[in-house]
Amino acid sequence: MIHINVERIRQARGVTKTHMAKKLNLSLQGYRHIASGSVRLDAERLKVIGLILNVNPSTFFDDKLTELVIKEIDSIGSNDSVGQPNKNKKRKPGEG
Q1: Is the separation of the CB atoms in 70 and 12 below 8 Å?
Q2: Which residue among 12, 39, 59, 93 sits deepest, i.e. has the most Cβ atoms within 10 Å of its Cβ?
Q3: Nearest-CA neighbor of 79 among 26, 16, 27?
Q4: Taking the CA of residue 14 as centre, how many other CA atoms within 13 Å lie in the half-sphere pointing to its CB?
C-alpha cells in the first residue's frame, strides 16, 4: 500500500511526522491520517512527499522499489535530502 511505503521511506530517511506535516502544511494529526492510510493521497500530494523524501513518487507504488530505496539509504548511511532532520536525533513520543 502506498501509505506504508511512504512511511517506510520516511523512517529510513529519519524524517519525523512533525517535519512531514510542516512541509505539507498539515497539522500533525492531519499527517497521521495520511500515515495510517485513513486519507487517500492524491497525485499532487504524492509529488510533494516525493520531493520532501527525495524519491520519485512512483516508488511509493512498488514494494520492491521501496525496498531498494531503503537499502540505498541504509548503505549511504546519511540523509541526501537538503534540510532533513538528523536521523540520530531523539524524537518525542508520537513523532515517530
Answers
A1: yes
A2: 59
A3: 16
A4: 17
Residue 92, helix vs strand vs coil: coil
- Angle ∠(63,47,83) on CA atoms, nearest 5: 95
Give phi and psi for 14, each to the nearest 5.
Answer: 80, 25
- How many angstroms separate the CA atoms of 4 and 12, rounded? 12
Q: pTM for the whole thing?
A: 0.78
pLDDT digits (tens, 9 = 90+) for 9-38: 999 999 999 999 999 999 999 999 999 999
- Domain 2-76 belongs to what topology? 434 Repressor (Amino-terminal Domain) (1.10.260)
Domain ranges of the chain: 2-76
Q: Where are the beta strands (DSSP E) in the chain?
A: none
Residue at 70: amino acid letter = I
